[in-house]
Amino acid sequence: MILESIVTTRNEDGTTNIAPMGPHCQRDSFEQFELRPFQESTTFLNLVRTGEGVMHVTDDVLLFAQAAIHQLPHDIALKRASSVDCEFLLDSCRYYEFRVTHIDTSQTRASIQCESVASSRIKDFFGFNRAMSMVVEAAILATRLDFRPPQEIRRCYDEFQQVIGKTGGERELAAFALLCDYVRSHDQKIGSEQPARPAC
Q1: What is the CB-side half-sphere exposure of residue 32 using CA atoms within 13 A?
Q2: Alpha helix locations (H) across 53-149?
């Protein structure tokens, strides 16, 4: 199965990179898992250099949205991990410190095998409602603007808006509004003849 998570890695300058990432794992077990980042991504480059990071389980979809479009707040709470040279997110449900055991770069998306070396639970996982799931999907689409037809993005965002407007709370609405602004800005930047107009 693929879990939606947030992965932190250490940048070359010592700062922390925070990125959404879908680890491939066995259900109910994070002892070993696989990450598949693009080889040009910061996460990939950091893992090749350091060989370690932290994978987080969280129900904060605003964080997913902010990380997906590189608009994270400057005051995000981080703390040094216990077993790897990296920081973890204090506002997550649980996290897994890991080390890389193998990297395969034969495909565009690398296959990085990881092994958990420490874990901790911070708070209970509240759960995802329909709006949260739609925000995660919208965040993923926002990272695919250069690969997917603009009409497809518009159609999906219009569908997401209906669900998020009915079932979302303040953080879900804020996350979706942030993503809508990002998509509109992207379309304006590339001079689209029919700029995306998500219903938000």
Answers
A1: 5
A2: 61-68, 130-142
